[in-house]
């Protein structure tokens, strides 16, 4: 279990006007501290995961990923080290496309070097989204990136958006391959800060149990997305 930034903080990059809520190294340091000081770590919450919008708009001259230098001035390795120093694990986001969903550099053409860079940063968890990618190429692409992660020798949980994009495109996902190469995967919509969104996800999983349930097992799981609390949902329902 752990904490992921997306649903609450989205792609807020305006640190000048909203320093407490923008995607920055400070935000993730604060959340790591809170997991420890408020007792979440002691009951099993161990991951602090960055989602989209942590990158610069372009890679460096050598093709390596760059964290936004204003919002992550110490760099990703330093943030990873900080989170590990709190006894926690560190997760990061990328996309199997030319761009991430928010328009930052994706991994296409850099799959092997990005996997190595994540290992060098001591990343423990990789979420790979599927914006700006062709769904029929995902069987090859997600599989290949998973192999590159494994070849680094650094253990990393691999979270895939592979099946959901294929389902949207009317393609039957190859769940046998997904189970082999991914630790967890998304089947349905992103969670939103509303009770209707929660109900829709519950309904989808309930109505599709015959397809979904057999795919889960030790080391590989269906991912219905984040648990959200204390948002806009009605208090009695959340």
Automatic annotation (TrEMBL):
<dbReference type="InterPro" id="IPR013785">
    <property type="entry name" value="Aldolase_TIM"/>
</dbReference>
<comment type="subunit">
    <text>Homodimer.</text>
</comment>
<keyword id="KW-0732">Signal</keyword>
<dbReference type="GO" id="GO:0005737">
    <property type="term" value="C:cytoplasm"/>
</dbReference>
<dbReference type="GO" id="GO:0009311">
    <property type="term" value="P:oligosaccharide metabolic process"/>
</dbReference>
<keyword id="KW-0378">Hydrolase</keyword>
<protein>
    <recommendedName>
        <fullName>Alpha-galactosidase</fullName>
        <ecNumber>3.2.1.-</ecNumber>
    </recommendedName>
</protein>
<comment type="similarity">
    <text>Belongs to the glycosyl hydrolase 27 family.</text>
</comment>
<keyword id="KW-0326">Glycosidase</keyword>
<dbReference type="InterPro" id="IPR002241">
    <property type="entry name" value="Glyco_hydro_27"/>
</dbReference>
<dbReference type="InterPro" id="IPR017853">
    <property type="entry name" value="GH"/>
</dbReference>
<keyword id="KW-1015">Disulfide bond</keyword>
<dbReference type="Pfam" id="PF16499">
    <property type="entry name" value="Melibiase_2"/>
</dbReference>
<dbReference type="GO" id="GO:0004557">
    <property type="term" value="F:alpha-galactosidase activity"/>
</dbReference>
<dbReference type="GO" id="GO:0016139">
    <property type="term" value="P:glycoside catabolic process"/>
</dbReference>
<dbReference type="InterPro" id="IPR000111">
    <property type="entry name" value="Glyco_hydro_27/36_CS"/>
</dbReference>
């Amino acid at each position: 279990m752990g904490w992921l930034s997306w649903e609450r903080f989205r792609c807020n990059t305006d640190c000048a006007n909203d320093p407490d809520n923008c995607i920055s190294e400070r935000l993730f340091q604060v959340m790591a501290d809170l997991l420890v000081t408020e007792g979440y770590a002691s009951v099993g919450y161990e991951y602090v995961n960055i989602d989209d919008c942590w990158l610069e708009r372009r890679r460096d001259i050598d093709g390596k990923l760059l964290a936004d230098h204003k919002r992550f001035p110490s760099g990703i390795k330093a943030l990873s080290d900080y989170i590990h120093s709190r006894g926690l694990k560190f997760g990061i986001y990328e996309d199997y496309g030319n761009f991430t969903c928010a328009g930052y550099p994706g991994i296409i053409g850099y799959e092997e070097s990005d996997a190595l860079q994540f290992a060098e940063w001591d990343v423990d968890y990789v979420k790979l989204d599927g914006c700006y990618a062709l769904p029929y190429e995902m069987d090859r692409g997600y599989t290949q990136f998973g192999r590159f992660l494994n070849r680094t020798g650094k253990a990393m949980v691999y979270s895939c958006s592979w099946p959901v994009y294929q389902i949207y495109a009317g393609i039957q996902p190859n769940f046998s391959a997904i189970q082999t190469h991914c630790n967890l995967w998304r089947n349905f919509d992103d969670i939103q800060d509303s009770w209707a969104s929660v109900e829709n996800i519950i309904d989808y999983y309930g109505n599709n149990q015959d397809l979904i349930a057999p795919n889960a097992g030790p080391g590989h799981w269906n991912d219905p997305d984040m648990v959200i609390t204390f948002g806009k949902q009605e208090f009695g329902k959340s």
